Amino acid sequence: MQKRALGRSGISIAPLVLGGNVFGFTADEPTSFAILDAFMDEGFSCIDTADSYSAWVPGHTGGESETMIGRWLKARGRRDEVVIATKVAMWATRPGLSAANIKAAVEDSLKRLQTDYIDVYQSHRDDNTVPQEETARAYGDLVAEGKVRAIGASNFDADRLTSARTVAADLGLPRYETLQPLYNLFDREGFEAELAGACRDQEIAVIPYYGLASGFLTGKYRSEADFGKSVRGRGMGKYLNDRGLKILAALDEVAAGLGATDAQVALAWLMTKITAPIASATSVEQLKDIAGAARLSLSSEAVAKLDAASA
Ligand SMILES: NC(=O)c1ccc[n+]([C@@H]2O[C@H](COP(=O)([O-])OP(=O)(O)OC[C@H]3O[C@@H](n4cnc5c(N)ncnc54)[C@H](OP(=O)(O)O)[C@@H]3O)[C@@H](O)[C@H]2O)c1
After folding, report:
1. Closest ligand 1 atom, residue 233 Cα
2. Is position 302 within any domain?
3. Long-range CB contacts for residues 214-218, cutoff 8 Å, separation at least 24
């Protein structure tokens, strides 16, 4: 599998990132371990998580996903084969991008992950209450100390991404090498309008989240009666409309022509646009399905059909 560069960080990954928000949420520990093993066995390496996952689950406080990944890393001893991407700023316990918060949060994440370095440490969202210079200096310290290899941003707008780059360049500090925006066949505008160009110009890798629109783009939700298929079904109302059904029809057609699944085609479409989509799985069967996206080659006609259906 051809690897793709994470900006200018020197880190390269196969073009699918495993979403970690399911670990301890919709996947228990044995299932999470099996999914992680299968992901590595399929030739992938990059796992995305955040300190805050999965604080939204009743009875959870946050930190559960990192803790699960840490136990798996300890059990398997394959740390140097794995690219860990985690995040700071969105957890109520450790909010924002102040230097003090970043420095405290990274120590907690390292403990939970049972490792002494994070490959890609991401700002989970922007924080305009803190000068970008303060944040850049804090990340610079972590990189200099070897606790972090590269930094990334998530949910930033193009102006702030660009100003962060200018600040880092002026100070001779590490810049954001990755951007993690919302982007999939259904949700296109937010990324394509300005961020896509900014990332191209600045050679920033793009690793978008909700690659499968939380499961909608697998084609398993075709009517409201399907919403009970997962706890994630509760959020499907926003996709199940004329445009959503048109996208599914195009996915069905392209998938049938390739002997593939809708999920594989939806992720393969993203792979033609950006560095590596993030998607999660709640079973090994789902993981094997989405892994197939990286072996799929979409013709320019297929991409055009999907572009048009989702325009
Ligand atoms: N930066 C941010 O602000 C942000 C925000 C959200 C997410 N993220 C990241 O992005 C990752 C992915 O997001 P996500 O998991 O919410 O959404 P997603 O990847 O769009 O959807 C994945 C879900 O779809 C279902 N699925 C996957 N493969 C399937 C298959 N082959 N057949 C049928 N169903 C399948 C599974 O859920 P069920 O089995 O439950 O149906 C799975 O958990 C997260 O884990 C997280 O790392 C980041």
Report:
1. 41
2. no
3. 216/186, 216/240, 216/244, 217/184, 217/185, 217/186, 217/247, 217/248, 217/251, 217/262, 217/263, 217/266, 218/261, 218/262, 218/263, 218/266
